Amino acid sequence: MTSHTVLPSTRPKVFLGSVDNSGSSGTLDRNGSTRQESAQDGILAFCQTRTAINPDDLFVGIGFNNKERVFCEPVPVCRIDAIRSAVKSLRPRGGTRSAGLEAANYYADHYRKHGCKVSLIILTDGHISMSSKHMKIAESLKSRGVVIDTIGIGGQPRDVDEQLLKDIATTDPDGYIHYRFIDDSETLIRHYENLAAGLRIENDS
């Protein structure tokens, strides 16, 4: 993780997209797409929405299963073809560990030193195996101003560890928790678009 995009004079926002690509992400949802495919479509919708707002904003893609992998090095959100190629490289395999927090911490440190606002979106369809170290990283990120949104996807809320995802997520001063459970691909894509637009969406689950 040594590659960094040169920053323009006006500081972009940096969006870290952490995606669960464990074996269960190959499960079909009710719309006929796999959860992995739905996540990929959501990321692309997010970047397309951000492109209309500020094409110089940056996206970093992190995949996690038994280990973390940066599948998309920092790239402007307007480079949709490059991002599409990167997200399509993800393959469902392995378990569910760490939520990509170590890689997220690395990039957050780098870009916040350069005056950039950093946001992290974590998506999972399972029960993440989190160590106390990773929880401390999540708390440290939030204390440094990184907004963390978490998304659980699956057939039912019990398919994910909702309490853990709420604990990882940012809680606003008014009590709003940046977590949502979603059970279909169309809603997931809309949610990514809303996150890109900076909208707060109440959790219906």
How many DSSP helices?
6
- Structural class call reads alpha/beta
Elements, N to C (H/E) = EHEEHHEHEHEH
CATH class: Alpha Beta
Taking the alpha carbons of the first and last residues, their distance comes to: 37 Å
Question: Which strand order spans the largest sheet, edge to edge or round the barrel?
Answer: 3-2-1-4-5-6
What would the CATH topology be?
A: Rossmann fold
- Gyration radius, rounded: 15 Å
Return the average pLDDT rounded to an integer: 89
Main sheet overview: 6 strands, mixed
The H-level CATH homologous superfamily, spelled out, is: von Willebrand factor, type A domain
Report the strand count.
6
* Residues in helix, %: 25-40%
Strand fraction: 15-25%
The shape, in one word, is globular
Q: Provide the low-confidence segments as ranges.
A: none
Domain module tally: 1
* CATH structural architecture: 3-Layer(aba) Sandwich
Protein name: von Willebrand factor type A domain protein
Organism: Anaerohalosphaera lusitana
InterPro entries: VWF_A, vWFA_dom_sf
Question: What are the key terms here?
Answer:
205 residues; alpha/beta; Rossmann fold; 6 helices; 6 strands; globular
Short description:
The chain is an alpha/beta fold and 205 residues long.
Annotate the secondary structure layout.
Layout lengths: L13 E7 L14 H19 L4 E7 L3 E9 L3 H8 L13 H13 L4 E7 L7 H12 L3 E7 L8 H7 L10 E4 L2 H12 L9
Parallel strand pairs: 1-2, 1-4, 4-5, 5-6
Antiparallel strand pairs: 2-3
Helix pairs in contact: 1-2, 1-6, 3-4
